[in-house]
Amino acid sequence: MRIGVPKEVKIHEYRVGMTPSSVREAISRGHSVNVQSNAAIKIGISNQDYIDAGAQIVDKAEDIWRNSELVVKVKEPQEIEYSFLRNDQILFTYLHLAPDRKQANALIKSGCSAIAYETVTDDKGGLPLLAPMSMVAGRMSIQCGAHFLEISKGGRGQLLGGVPGVPSAKVIIFGGGIVGTNAAKMAVGLGADVYIFDLNPYRLAELDQMFGTSITTLYPTLDLIEEKVIEADLVIGAVLVPGASAPRVVTEDLVKKMKKGSVMVDVSIDQGGCFETSRGTTHDDPSYIVHDVIHYCVTNMPGAVARTSTYALNNSTLPFILNIADKGLRNSLINDQNLANGLNIFSGNVINKPVSDSLGLPYKSIKEILN
Predict the structure, then answer these.
(1) How many other C-beta atoms are found inside a 10 Å radius of the C-beta of residue 321?
(2) What separation in angstroms does the CA of 153 have from each of 143, 287, 294, 337?
(3) How distant, in Å, are the alpha carbons of 191, 230, 253 from that of 263?
(4) pLDDT classification of 371: cutoffs 50, 70, 90
(5) Geometric angle at alpha carbon 277, from 151 and 227, rounded to 5°
(6) What is the DSSP pairing of strand 113-116 with strand 343-346?
(7) Most buried of 62, 114, 262, 272 (most Cβ within 10 A)?
């Protein structure tokens, strides 16, 4: 199969779909790989590294897309890439379609087959291609939150861990999944006073086992949410409903009651955000203020640590890339239910039910399109 790896065009996105090691694996199986020139130069991977792995270097993005049966990316296609999509092409990348009708329409119109990293599953029902970036984003959320709590960034001047005789900052985390757990690890390590909300009592029990008395686990009633958010110095949004828009857990009225100079980091922003006052931002202009509360809502947080993120992501995506390339799309979907769960768009149809529900678009099951 002809595989293409274009350079990412989203603002300050330096991750890349395949590393030289991944390229070498694909080529060893008889596939060809075209990589756009300088696709990974910012993270210390040169054109020569790809050439040594057996790839062909191509200057123009449009040539990568035109000559590829399978396009492997990191971020969703940007508007300038919509015209490159076509009906005999497989796109494998993060899509986050639930809050993005414009992108969904472009994918549907193109007739391409679009597989979303974030809805591919594993045998335990987990999300293995979302997990590595969730780990990164969870850890970064505390790092970024601590940074914006500094007075020079408009924050209230609170040190997360405090010092002897001065209380630690209160960190509230919504969601006890991979993002929330990794955020908690960082916050606990810095000495913060940490609270985690989750709807699943079994997950709360697991978190209690994991962290012991280092954190407080809470079930999200309206009273408790209001009490803790008002007290908070840093609030992390880490709520996920696979494929669907994130539920709103903090209202604008509650934001109005928060401390002046407190910080909210919405890691759920790729799926629309879980705070009512959230809107997507970029690494160029990462924060804004609403009701005297700093909001950090960068839609590609792991892009800030692009080298770590690229290698972590490739460790998880490579088996699926090889599966698609070795067997072709139809056979790989039939033989791998976990990959089939990642199919969001196929031949002008929405295949993922949460995406169709979020966007109000007609739904077709994968059985219908494969029969």
Answers:
(1) 22
(2) 13, 9, 9, 46
(3) 17, 12, 16
(4) confident
(5) 75
(6) antiparallel
(7) 114
How many Cβ atoms are within 10 Å of 114's Cβ, its own excluded?
29
340-364 pLDDT, tens per residue?
A: 999 999 999 999 999 999 999 999 9
CATH entry 3.40.50.720 includes domain 2-119+306-370: yes
**Which residues are tagged catalytic?**
96, 270
Element at 215 (helix H, strand E): strand 215-218
User: What is the average per-residue pLDDT within 92-105?
Assistant: 95
> What is the C-alpha to C-alpha distance for residues 19 and 65, in angstroms, rounded to an integer?
18
Q: Residue 221: which residues within 8 A CB-CB, separation 6 or more?
A: none
Q: What is the reported pLDDT for 176?
A: 97
Taking only the tens place, the pLDDT of each residue in 322-331 is 999 999 999 9
Question: Residues 246-299: pLDDT tens digits?
Answer: 999 999 999 999 999 999 999 999 999 999 999 999 999 999 999 999 999 999
Contact assessment for residue 45 and residue 35, using Cβ atoms and an 8 Å cutoff: no
Under the banding of pLDDT at 50, 70 and 90, the label for residue 215 is very high
Domain locations along the chain? 2-119+306-370, 134-299
Nearest to 49 by CA among 77, 18, 88: 18
The two domains 2-119+306-370 and 134-299 share their CATH topology (first three levels equal): yes
pTM of the model: 0.88
The Cα–Cα gap between 113 and 108 comes to 9
What architecture is the 134-299 domain classified under in CATH?
3-Layer(aba) Sandwich (3.40)
Query: Whole-angstrom Cα distance, residue 192 to residue 170?
Result: 6
Separation CA 280–CA 260 (nearest Å): 21
